[in-house]
Write a structure and sequence with these properties.
The protein has 1520 residues and is an all-alpha fold. The longest helix has 39 residues.
Length: 1520
């Protein structure tokens, strides 16, 4: 007794107050109603009182009287007191103090009056009884007890060894089995049981067992039996043993434990009458067995999966069947029940989650719930838990739902009222369920709907205080989706409704969350459970079965099977399908068609699976040869385009994937974007467009759709809208554009690295094409506001985002067009003027308002010196216009309208078509026809407005601050070349724009120079192109050549479109001169020479590229040549040279590089078919020989004759002669152009840039003419291999020489009138011209040997310049003539030099001296007659030409005084020069000697050039 009931103060003051207090305490204790505890308290009080007597603290008589009084309080008080005495008996007997034992004996003796002797004899020790005098001898008493006990307990009767009293047990069962509906309580029944036990001597444990048996059969009476057992039993272990014994009875094979037993065990556990740990050890099987069973299940499942995947041979099949039979026989002997699971189910049924959770924790994960009964029990439990919340937030509108009755147990978990309550128990219950929620689709739907209800709250509730709580709940729902919903869906057999229900929840998640869930589902979930392992294997097997049989013919049936299979296991199915598509791309079409039976969730999963397949790190995106993109990637990209177009799949994830790849600097995956845009928006990117398609592409949107693409683009409205929405919603439109624009260069400089050049080019093209395609999509699909809002201004694009200028303008162009049109509409509405003139003015005003900020913005894109030549306005105009603005494709509109008319006619004539369908089709065609006509009319008005605007602008386009050559250089560099390779339409646009600028008579724009630079520069531009750029560059050259060919083919056209145009002026000063003077215009025949020279330059460049052996050079030049085939080659010998070289490529590349071989063969075939249209050279640029035409044009093969087309003197004929001989050589040996292109002709062709300044000795030209004529005659006679053609040529030369003498005299008379003051101006002009020459000569890099020669020559020229300047100042004679003839001499001289400038055959280094002479013309020659002007013109062109045509030795112009002494030397040199081509021609017949001959000729030419230079310097020094 830890706390004394009788305080010490009572003992001290016993008589005063203690006695009274003690009696009062005893009375209170006896009045307590609690069963059993009051006796203990009274015993404790009496014990303490008696102990005080034993200790001697209280007098015996006082205590005896109090005890006597207390006998009246209870009937059983003597018995209670006897119990106290027996305790004290034991305690005092063990004490050593004798006096205490005496005190005890005296106390018992004093109480004999009111405690019966019988009780004392029963309870006290025999010695104590003897000392009290109640018995005589203790020894005899003990013997008597033993005898009685033996008789009672050990003497056997005839039966009832287990003390079975049938009547007693029968009465007990009757008592327990009575109707309990009345006032019968467990307390009453307990009293009856006690009396039965006493009366019939029943075993209490057996009685307890019977109580449990009856409870088991009446398990609905939980309340009664539980309170009865609680009252009857005091020891939980006993109850556990009895229950354990019951469970053990059922642990034999083929025995089944009754559910009622599980129920009572669960009820006892639930009410804490027993402990789970005590009962758990009695249940079978042991935990170790359960773990082993689980492992066995997993391995079996994996084995089944392996078998399904493996190819099984027939012998193996029979063995497997035998094993399976053995297993089945073993299974026939059913193992005993799993009692732990039975108990678990019972616990779940009554709502005891705490104990159920404890049992499940002892087992492997999902082992318990893999048994259907337990899963269903747990599902039922969850139903009850979520019921109130589901009624509030989950029931859809209109649904009633069945009401669930709550659990009766008050100890069960509380149902959830709010979403936060779900975290208490529901989420953990669902996690224990895992994939086995599949057993209860209704609960599945409820959980999904609760998720939807939560997401609505989550999205609408923006309060910051609940944000953390909401985020936690969101992560819980995501976990449930991952661990429970998706795995459960896998185990449901093709339940499309559940799939759609789940999509209702998933579509509220952002795609990042969804894809994370799909990833877990696909890659981890299926390995977590044996059932899922089997399901995965079965799905793969079924997928294989379907895919093997899938064809275009059975798409519908296969599609249905695919649909069924995909409802449950989409990730596995799609993974297999995609793997097949990556191998066999012919499956794409049937697969796409068969996906029509998928659910929305499955489409989303398909998008994820495609992205995962694309991002597979184990797969190489390049083929093993490292030159092409892998076919699996191409197949997937193609599938992407088709699937995303046909089905409503969210695009955000795919677009973000491409964006992220671009951010990481990887451009392979742009293939996907390209395919998606092509299929969804109907915008194709191809450089193989026909000319008709290209023409259609320059029209409006309707014409593009009808005639611009290979396939008819139909029904892209919805799909392009989806693509647009995805781009705008996720803000990906501009980032994708910018990343692609930046990545183009990244491909070369960052990605390029170790990759093959072919692959780098392919990736660059892909990046560029996708940018063009994507930009086109944005331009045509985004509204004006959306587009303008997203695309920043041009300076921000270029300077801040580092977008290349061509791409930046490409993105901005639609914005400018939108803005101009909207501004124009505003102005039209403001003023109601309808006249065409007013409309045009308003349009121009709108353009000014929109483009002025652009003009200011572009200034920052280039250094300030650029704007000295080009105005920002011109630059912006060039980049902001498109082909739509420049011309109306009338023929394309007409073609499409005619097609529609034919369609209408065909519809009318078709008798099989039903009438209503006929009517619909006709209406559609008619509407389309009207649309096209309306569009054409609209475009026509627009083009007229634009042309009027350009007419107004053109005078301010080009400044006159520096030379025309500089202007053209910058125009080519910053405008033409970047844009002509941007897209096919841009290529056409560039050619058309040059023509337009020419037609507009733009001041300071030299058309001749522009064309010349374009055709002379192709080696390096072609070499630096990618494959697709070559197509575009070829198209550009073709369009340029078309224009040139048109002018070349008809004198009338030439005179109408070129004569009197500033672009065909041959004076290149920078002032705005209108070129009205005939003397400054290039005549028709000279233009034909120029065109021939351009053709020759193209041949030379082509042959050079074909000879390099470099893959890129050969491929690109073949592509370009194929593109320009309609316009080139036109000259027979040039065509033959090309044909020979291409044939050689075919032979060389047949086994090495098959793609080059294919290109070369294709071109070769087409070239042969063009041969019939080729003409001999004399027909090409010398149809007839007019009085003023150049010398033997019929024999020209190179640009030597026309290297200075625009300088009013076509070229020195030194080159002409050499070329004449060369052309003969070519006809003898077709490989000759190769030699010429790289050796002898280079000397002539590249001397374009530095002409007309270095010779001041031309004053003496008139004396030379007759002599040079004779020399030429001699030379011609001595030249071996002369033909009738050369004889005729000699006669023509004679006539020209005589005429030239007369003309020169007449011109001299006119020029001598020039005043001295003007002649003085020549000097400063010439000085400045030297600087210009130095600038202009840097067009093209050269071979080192050529460069050295050029440097020597330029030094000698500089000396010549200085001497020329000196002469022009000192000479007292007629200086204007000197300046004029000086130019002629300079030109002749430079024709023999190789020049570093490849692109300036029409150079402007002669501008300044000409400017001075033009001033003479303008100021002082007004009085001179038209006749003298004409003569001067002839002098400036033909006479100088004739003088040039003397011989190559005219390279060093000699002064008049030294002419006689030098004549013999020069004539001998002429012979040497003229013989050279002959020698090389014979050598050129053999291919093996080709290179050797080439180098020898080059050395000879260099040395002869050097000698001539020295002679020139000597003569000029002597003259000084």
């Amino acid at each position: 007794m830890a706390t004394p009931i009788v305080p010490g103060e009572w003992i001290k003051n016993w008589e005063k107050s203690g006695k009274h207090e003690f009696i009062q305490l005893c009375k209170e204790l006896t009045e307590k109603t609690d069963h059993g505890s009051e006796i203990k308290d009274i015993q404790a009080a009496l014990y303490e009182l008696c102990w005080q007597v034993v200790q001697g603290n209280l007098k015996l008589d006082l205590v005896a009287s109090v005890l006597g009084d207390m006998m009246e309080l209870r009937d059983d008080m003597p018995s209670i007191l006897a119990d106290v005495f027996s305790i004290l008996d034991l305690e005092t007997g063990a004490l050593e103090e004798k006096n205490k034992r005496d005190h005890y004996t005296q106390l018992v003796g004093a109480c004999l009056f009111f405690v019966p002797e019988a009780i004392l004899k029963e309870r006290l020790d025999p010695e104590t009884i003897e000392s009290l005098g109640l018995i005589k001898q203790a020894h005899q008493f003990n013997q008597k007890i033993v005898k009685i006990k033996t008789k009672l307990f050990y003497k056997q009767q005839k039966f009832n060894l287990l003390r079975e009293e049938n009547e007693g047990y029968a009465k007990l069962i009757t008592e327990l089995g009575q109707d309990l509906s009345g006032n019968i309580t467990s307390h009453l029944v307990l009293e009856s049981i006690k009396s039965l036990i006493g009366c019939f001597n029943l075993d209490p444990n057996r009685v307890l067992d019977i109580i449990l048996e009856v409870y088991e059969s009446r398990s609905d009476q939980d309340e009664f039996f539980l309170s009865l057992i609680k009252s009857y039993m005091c020891e939980p272990l006993t109850l556990c043993h009895i229950l354990g014994f019951k469970f053990k009875f059922y642990q034999e094979p083929n025995e089944e434990t009754p559910k009622s037993l599980y129920h009572i065990a669960a009820a006892l556990l639930h009410h804490n009458l027993i402990e789970l740990e005590d009962l758990y050890v009695h249940l079978m099987p042991p935990d170790v067995t359960i773990v082993e069973e689980h492992k066995r299940d997993i391995s079996e499942a994996k084995q089944i999966a392996r078998k399904l995947v493996m190819v099984v041979l027939p012998s193996e099949k029979s063995e497997d069947k035998e094993k399976d039979k053995e297993k089945e026989e073993e299974k026939n002997e059913k193992p005993p029940d799993n009692q732990k699971l039975g108990l678990l189910e019972a616990l779940l049924r009554i709502g005891d989650w705490h104990h159920a959770q404890s049992i499940m924790d002892q087992m492997p994960s999902f082992y318990a719930t893999s048994h259907k009964s337990i899963a269903l029990a747990l599902c039922q439990f969850v139903h009850l838990t979520v019921e109130p919340l589901y009624r509030r937030a989950g029931v859809p509108k209109g649904a009633r739902g069945c009401v669930m009755n709550p659990l009766r147990s008050k100890r069960a978990p509380r149902p959830a009222e709010t979403f936060d309550d779900l975290r208490r128990d529901t989420f953990s219950m669902l996690c224990y369920l895992g994939p086995h929620l599949s057993h209860d689709p209704i609960l599945f739907a409820k959980i999904v709907r609760l998720g939807k209800g939560f997401m609505k709250e989550y999205q609408s509730d923006g309060r910051s205080e609940v944000k953390d709580k909401m985020e936690t709940l969101l992560s819980c729902f995501l976990s449930i989706a991952d661990q429970v919903l998706l795995p459960s869906l896998s185990l449901m057999e093709c339940n499309a409704c559940m799939s759609e229900e789940l999509w209702g929840l998933f579509k509220l998640f952002p795609y990042q969350h969804r894809y994370r869930l799909y990833g877990q589902w696909k890659n981890e979930t299926y390995s977590s459970h044996p059932l899922l392992v089997k399901v995965k294997a079965q799905t793969v097997e079924r997928a294989k079965y379907i895919m093997k049989r899938l064809t275009k013919e059975n798409v519908k049936q296969s599609g249905r099977q695919i649909g069924k299979l995909s409802h449950s296991n989409p990730t596995i199915l799609f993974d297999y399908m995609l793997s097949q598509i990556q191998w066999y791309d012919n499956l794409i079409v049937p697969v796409v068609d068969s996906l029509k039976y998928l659910t929305s969730l499955n489409y989303d999963v398909l998008a994820y699976c495609i992205i995962e397949a694309l991002a597979n790190p184990e797969k190489e995106k390049m083929k093993h040869d490292d030159t092409t993109i892998s076919s699996w990637l191409q197949s997937l990209a193609s599938l992407c385009g088709a699937v995303f177009r046909k089905y409503p799949i969210e695009l955000a994830g795919l677009l973000q994937y491409v964006t992220n790849q671009l951010k990481a600097g990887k451009s392979f995956d742009l293939l996907i974007l390209k395919e998606v845009v092509q299929k969804m928006a109907g915008i194709e990117i191809t450089d193989e467009m026909t000319s008709e398609q290209l023409e259609a592409m320059t029209g409006g949107e309707q014409l593009k759709a009808e005639g611009g693409y290979f396939g008819q683009i139909r029904n892209t409205k919805k799909s392009s809208q989806r693509l647009k929405d995805a781009l705008l919603d996720h803000e990906l439109a501009l980032p994708l554009c910018l990343l692609m624009a930046q990545q183009r260069n990244g491909v070369v400089f960052l990605e390029g690295g170790e990759k093959h050049l072919k692959l780098v080019g392919h990736l660059y093209d892909q990046c560029h094409d996708t940018l063009v395609q994507f930009g086109g999509f944005l331009a045509s699909n985004l509204s004006t506001e959306d587009y303008i809002k997203r695309v920043p201004s041009i300076d921000i694009l270029c300077n801040q985002f580092h977008t290349p200028h061509d791409a930046a303008f490409f993105l901005s162009r639609p914005m400018y067009a939108h803005q101009i049109l909207s501004k124009y509409d505003e102005l039209k509405k403001a003023e109601k003027g309808n006249r065409q003139q007013q409309k045009v003015h308003k349009y121009v005003a709108a353009c000014e308002q929109v483009m002025t900020p652009v003009h200011e913005a572009v200034v920052s894109l280039h250094p300030a010196r650029v704007w000295d030549d080009l105005r920002p306005q011109f630059y912006a105009t060039f980049w902001s216009l498109t082909m739509y603005d420049l011309a109306v494709p009338h023929s394309a509109y007409e073609r499409e309208v005619n097609k529609l008319k034919v369609q209408i006619k065909a519809i009318e004539e078709n008798p099989e078509t039903p009438l209503n369908k006929k009517k619909k089709e006709k209406e559609r065609c008619t509407a389309l026809q009207e649309k096209l006509q309306e569009e054409e009319k609209k475009q026509l008005e627009h083009v007229q407005r634009v042309l009027h605007r350009l007419k107004l602008e053109k005078d301010n386009w080009l400044l006159a601050k520096s030379t025309k050559n500089e202007t053209i250089t910058k125009f080519l560099q910053l405008c033409l070349f970047p844009r002509c390779i941007f897209s096919s339409i841009d290529a056409v646009y560039c050619a058309r724009f040059v023509e337009l600028v020419h037609q507009q008579k733009t001041p300071n724009f030299c058309t001749l120079l522009c064309y010349d630079r374009v055709f002379s520069a192709i080696i390096y531009t072609v070499a630096s192109c990618t494959e697709n750029e070559s197509h575009r560059y070829g198209r550009f050259l073709c369009c340029m050549l078309e224009t040139v060919t048109r002018w070349h083919s008809d004198r009338a056209v030439y005179e109408k479109e070129c004569v009197n145009y500033p672009g065909f002026l041959t004076i290149f000063r920078a002032t705005g001169f209108d070129g009205g003077n005939k003397a400054d215009q290039l005549d028709y025949e000279n233009f034909r020479h120029v065109v021939h020279k351009w053709h020759y330059m193209l041949t030379k460049a082509s042959v050079h590229c074909l000879e390099t052996g470099d893959y890129t050079h050969i491929r690109n030049i073949l592509i370009v040549l194929t593109k320009i085939l309609p316009c080139y080659p036109k000259v027979l010998n040039l065509g033959q040279a090309l044909e020979c070289r291409v044939h050689k490529i075919c032979l060389e590349e047949k086994d090495k590089r098959p793609d080059l071989y294919a290109l070369a063969m294709g071109y070769s075939g087409r070239l042969k078919s063009q041969k019939v249209h080729m003409v001999p050279e004399n027909e090409f640029h010398h149809k007839e020989q007019p009085a003023r035409s150049a010398t033997p044009a019929s024999q020209q093969n190179g640009p030597g004759s026309t290297g200075k087309p625009a300088t009013s003197t076509t070229k020195t004929e030194e080159g002409t002669l050499e070329d004449g001989d060369r052309s003969k050589d070519k006809s003898q040996g077709t490989t000759k152009p190769v030699n010429k292109a790289n050796s002898a002709t280079a000397k002539v062709t590249t001397s374009n840039g530095n002409g007309a300044l270095n010779s001041t000795k031309a004053v003496k030209e008139r004396d030379d003419k007759e002599k040079s004529g004779k020399e030429k005659k001699e030379k011609k006679e001595k030249t071996p291999g002369s033909t009738p053609e050369t004889k005729a040529e000699n006669r023509r030369e004679k006539q020209r020489d005589e005429r030239a003498g007369k003309e020169e005299r007449a011109a001299r008379e006119g020029k001598e009138k020039t005043p001295k003051a003007d002649r003085e101006k020549v000097k400063p002009d010439e000085k400045s011209c030297k600087d210009d020459k130095a600038k202009a000569g840097n067009g093209e890099p050269m071979d080192p040997s050529r460069e050295r020669d050029a440097m020597k020559e330029s030094k000698s020229k500089d000396k010549g310049d200085r001497s020329a300047v000196a002469v022009s100042i000192k000479s007292p004679g007629p200086r204007s003539e000197s300046a004029e003839s000086e130019r002629d001499h300079k030109r002749r001289k430079l024709d023999s030099h190789s020049s570093p400038s490849h692109s300036s055959s029409v150079k402007d280094n002669n501008n300044e001296p000409k400017e001075s002479t033009s001033k003479d013309h303008a100021v002082n020659d007004r009085e001179t007659s038209q006749e003298s002007k004409r003569r001067k013109d002839e002098n400036g062109t033909n006479s100088s030409k004739n003088s040039k045509s003397t011989s190559p030795s005219c390279d060093s112009p000699l002064s008049a005084e030294k002419e006689k002494s030098k004549r013999s030397k020069s004539s001998s040199k002429e012979k040497a020069e003229s013989v050279k081509p002959e020698r090389t021609s014979s050598g050129g017949k053999k291919e093996s000697r080709h290179d050797k001959e080439k180098s020898e000729k080059k050395e000879k030419r260099d040395s002869s050039g050097g000698k001539e230079e020295k002679k020139h310097h000597k003569s000029s020094d002597k003259h000084r």
